[in-house]
Design a protein that fits this description.
The complex is a heterodimer of chains A (297) and B (339).
Chain A (H helix, E strand, L loop, with lengths): L1 H9 L2 H32 L6 H19 L2 H24 L7 H23 L13 E4 L2 E4 H23 L1 H11 L1 H6 L4 H27 L5 H16 L4 H21 L2 H18 L10
Antiparallel strand pairs in A: 1-2
Helix pairs in contact in A: 2-6, 2-9, 2-10, 2-11, 3-4, 3-5, 3-9, 3-10, 4-9, 6-7, 7-9, 10-11, 10-12, 11-12
Chain B lengths: L5 H5 L14 H22 L2 H27 L6 H18 L5 H23 L4 H21 L1 H4 L5 E2 L4 E4 L3 E4 L2 H24 L1 H11 L1 H7 L3 H27 L1 E2 L6 H14 L5 H21 L6 H14 L9 H5 L1
Antiparallel strand pairs in B: 1-4, 2-3
Helix pairs in contact in B: 2-8, 3-8, 3-11, 3-12, 3-13, 4-5, 4-6, 4-11, 5-11, 8-9, 8-11, 9-10, 9-11, 12-13
Classes of the chains: A mainly alpha (297), B mainly alpha (339).
């Protein structure tokens, strides 16, 4: 018992609270990435390997737009728009011909896209990470740390974007089309919903959301061509744990997993902390393959 | 350079209407096999040193891709985790070559296979409960777990720098003990790859292989007939993992190093790409795919410089092939090769 008692006393409470804040902030960005991914999966049955690269392209577009306009928030909007349009073009060129084929074909196609985009970014922008300054300089004191307000703003903004997406899906006509297509593709088509257009629109929407999270993350991570990979893996885990195609589930799962990783990082080094989320994924797949937060239909 | 004629020699054009051919299918197959083998045996004698090593490397990547073809093409499961088996084979061989002195080739093979098998048991047990996309993602995550372990366990694996060791001699106990040169290395790799091909071909044509193919065609019906589908899947993953591990051993022995980069899931992705380019469900297709991919990559970097991002045009070719030629380069010969 003594060992356990020592262990409990050795837990640094202040560090845990800092990690809670950190975990929620990364969790919200991750939720934004994952909700785009889960939207695309839920509707098109496409596991989008290139999602991390859309995130990375968004971050680069943000850097470029910020350099031109000098306004971070304008850069955020511009980058999302550009990557959204790019996503639509990508879907029409590469994924639309694959509709009706084995879903594994689309995994491989998006894997190819991700290779191309990643190498393009490396070639175009070089291996040195780009930095972008935080648009809000203010900080507040959290124990011994000066914690930037910007991170809190990111978390809130990500939440707001996800909330807007939810409202859009619930009330907008296009959103209703999307939900109808998710439930029953053939029936939706029979009712006159232009399903191919919905596919393209959803892919563009997902791409724009990935880009937005890329821009939001850029100030504290730096932008390089490999950044998409680590995010897409995490986002996959979140999407599976939250239940494929389940928006609310992926938000909860994103925060859950980011918190776990943040706590694990107190004791392990950050690259090992990733294993925690891998273990969560495996346990989920073994015991609740439809996702931890799946609503029984 | 000799990788290109592979597809021509394996399926002679006069064999396309199978019933009217004079020679039996078996005879033509073995003649084709011997011709290709003869070409590959002679190749290192006529090729300049660089292309010699290059051809050997293609064979090794081909073996990795061929092992994953057992899953993709025959059992109908796409694995993104073959880098784990490849990597464990590589590090297993590294362990044997570093710990035992003088380095022993067969011990390296044994250790590599044990390493790959232990990873394969683990992956097979958990991931075969899942299907399609979920299987692909789980295998990917498993390979990343092995990657993180290998990458961070610096004291054992050398971490990011990997491990460097001496090349073992080619030994047959009490008879032969000669160091490898690039030609004999090529022959050794060729022998292993050709042997693996024949074993895998035999496996896919055995009753066991038929069950695997019936799982691919209709899993529910296979289960309804009474086959323990999960057990068959597990065995196929383990078998596939063993051959992937063998490829890892060969790579370690040829290159004299092991690095965590090979455990990263991009290696698995490349194995899948080779399969798709060459043609899934053909076993030789993946080797052709590996040759096509590596050759194109090599030529691009020779024409356009080392800095040229060869994966951009290759990725575009790959995407175009998925859309327009999903059967791959050897897809037309698939039925013939599997008879």
């Amino acid at each position: 018992m003594g060992a356990i008692g020592d262990f409990i006393h050795s837990i640094p409470i202040d560090l845990l609270i800092i990690q809670t804040v950190n975990g929620i902030v990364t969790g919200m960005i991750l939720a934004l990435v994952a909700s785009g991914l889960t939207l695309i999966f839920g509707i098109m049955d496409v596991v989008n390997f290139a999602h991390g690269e859309l995130f990375m392209l968004g971050a680069y577009m943000g850097v470029l737009a910020f350099a031109t306009t000098g306004n971070f928030w304008l850069a955020l909007v511009l980058a999302s728009l550009i990557v959204g349009v790019f996503g639509a073009a990508l879907q029409i060129l590469t994924l639309r011909p694959l509709i009706g084929r084995d879903p594994l074909n689309t995994i491989l196609a998006t894997f190819g896209i991700s290779l191309v985009l990643q190498n393009y970014a490396l070639w175009q922008f070089g291996p040195v990470a780009r930095k972008i300054s935080e648009p809000i300089g203010a900080e507040f004191t959290l124990f011994y740390l000066q914690y930037p307000w910007y991170r809190i703003v990111i978390a809130l903004l990500s939440g707001a974007i996800i909330g807007a997406l939810w409202l859009f899906l619930k009330y907008n006509k296009f959103g209703v089309w999307i939900r109808a297509t998710t439930q029953d593709r053939v029936m939706a088509q029979a009712m006159g919903i232009p399903v191919p257009l919905v596919y393209t629109g959803v892919f563009a929407l997902g791409a724009a959301m990935a880009a937005a999270s890329g821009v939001l993350f850029a100030p504290f991570g730096g932008v390089d061509s490999g950044m998409g990979l680590q995010w897409v893996l995490e986002a996959f885990i979140v999407v599976v744990v939250g239940g494929m195609g389940n928006l609310a589930g992926s938000v909860v799962a994103a925060i859950f997993i980011s918190l776990l990783e943040a706590y694990a990082a107190v004791w392990l080094n950050p690259s090992q902390a990733v294993i925690v989320s891998f273990v969560v994924l495996i346990l989920t797949l073994l015991f609740r393959p439809t996702g931890l937060f799946a609503v029984p239909k | 350079m000799t990788a290109a004629p592979l597809d021509k020699t394996i399926s002679p054009p006069n064999m396309s209407p199978p019933n009217k051919a004079r020679l039996s299918h078996t005879a033509v197959f073995w003649i084709g096999f011997c011709v290709v083998m003869a070409l590959l045996i002679v190749a290192p004698l006529v090729l300049p040193p660089f292309w010699r090593g290059f051809l050997t490397e293609i064979l090794i990547w081909g073996l990795l891709a061929m092992s994953s073809d057992l899953l993709i093409g025959y059992t109908g499961m796409v694995s993104f985790g073959h880098s784990a088996f490849f990597g464990l084979g590589m590090y297993g061989a590294a362990a044997a070559l570093i710990l035992v002195s003088p380095p022993n080739l067969w011990l390296a093979v044994l250790f590599g296979l044990i390493g790959a098998a232990s990873a394969a048991v683990f992956v097979a047990y958990f991931s075969t409960r899942l299907r399609d996309i979920y299987f692909a993602i789980t295998t990917l995550i498993f390979s990343q777990i092995f990657y993180v372990i290998i990458f961070t366990w610096t004291s054992l694996t050398g971490g990011e720098n990997g491990l460097i060791f001496d090349q073992p001699h080619f030994t047959i106990p009490f008879l032969v003990n000669v160091p490898f040169n690039s030609t004999t290395m090529h022959w050794f790799v060729l022998a292993v790859v050709a042997g693996s091909y024949l074993i895998l071909r035999r496996v896919t044509q055995s009753p066991f292989g038929m069950v695997l193919q019936s799982i691919r065609e209709n899993e529910a019906r296979t289960r309804a007939i009474g086959y323990p589908v999960e057990r068959y899947k597990m065995v196929s993953v383990m078998l596939s993992g063993l051959f992937a591990g063998l490829a890892g051993v060969l790579y370690a022995v040829q290159k004299e190093f092991a690095a965590p980069d090979f455990v990263y899931f991009l290696t698995s992705g490349e194995a899948v790409i080779y399969n798709l380019i060459g043609g899934v469900g053909t076993l030789v297709g993946p080797i052709v795919g590996a040759g096509f991919f590596q050759l194109l990559r090599q030529l691009l970097s020779q024409w356009l410089g080392d800095q040229f991002p060869y994966l951009i045009p290759l990725g575009i070719v790959f995407i175009a092939m998925i859309i327009f030629l999903p059967q791959g380069l050897l897809g037309f010969a698939r039925r013939w090769l599997n008879r």
